[in-house]
Amino acid sequence: MPTPQRLAGILVPHMVPLDARGRINEEELARYVSWLVDQGVHGLYPNGSTGEFTRFTAEERRRIVSIVCDAAAGRVPVVAGAAEANVAETLRACEHCLEAGARAVAIVSPFYFKLSAESVYAYFREIARHTPIDVTLYNIPMLASPIDVATVRQLAEEFPRIVGIKDSSGDISHMLRLIAAVRPIRPDFSFLTGWDACLVPMLLAGCDGGVHATAGVVPEVTRAIHDDVRAGRLEAAFSRQQRIADLLDVAFRGADFPEGFRIAAGLRGFAMGESRQPATEAQRAERCDLAERIRAAIERCDVTHAPGLLRRG
């Protein structure tokens, strides 16, 4: 069997459209995914933090993966979130992701309980020993037990099934240490940044790509940033980076994450519906103003050339 290509480029941790009753809007999800692929992204990342994976049942998460893989139809790889509450359930999710057609899974370190580095290693070791599909680590220290450099190196050295890491710390020095520790022993290992505001410097530091919430809103811009850096067009890349950072600030800080990105995807022409997280009347009123600020940030990203996508009212 040929060795799969290293994961790289812009992977989208997209939202999940919901209908008026809060159910997955399957048709709209498929349409949204197809549009993202058409805009030139390099991969899809369902059931991530932006996709609100904890707000869906295990059965719904599996259905989401199936819909996304079907809609992608092999055009780009799918790295599907497979994190569950324990190792046994996580492995069942891994099995489903393989059956659905995912290229790999993304697994966050255990959340809720604060674990030592040794316990984090033991958790991923157990998964790596039994997974039927390639695994990418997901380091998001603000929400789950951190995965330190030594642990990543040990896992990469011992388990070929662990093929990469998405790091959402936004810490460039940490990423540099990761790359220096792992790349010499695993040239095939993928390093993906999960913090939108530092995509350009992370790519310049040696990252293979990024997994960004803003890519679900302005996928053509994040793809252009990636291409600009690879082609050495750094002035253009940094200019687009600033616009992405502005959009991130408005959407991320304007409402409880990831509500701002649900609003933003709606402004690109998709029926996203309301989140399963209940909102107060005051929050609903505030989000009307937020939508206008997000609209302005999207327009500053120079995507108005795409007719019919931005909607008012």
Structural key phrases:
single chain; 313 residues; alpha/beta; TIM Barrel; 8-stranded parallel sheet; 11 helices; 11% strand
Multimeric state: single chain
The helix fraction, in percent, is: 40-55%
Reading the helices and strands in chain order gives EHEHEHEHEHEHEHEHHHH
Largest sheet: 8 strands, parallel
Q: Provide the domain count.
A: 1
Distance between the termini: 53 Å
Widest sheet, order of strands: 2-1-8-7-6-5-4-3
Given this structure, which CATH class is correct?
A: Alpha Beta
Unreliable segments of 5+ consecutive residues: none
CATH topology: TIM Barrel
CATH homologous superfamily identity: Aldolase class I
Tell me the total number of β-strands: 8
Rg calc: 19 Å
Structural class: alpha/beta
Shape: globular
Number of contiguous helices: 11
- Overall pLDDT level: 94
- Please indicate the percent range of residues in DSSP E strands (runs of 2 or more): 5-15%
Tell me the CATH architecture. Answer: Alpha-Beta Barrel
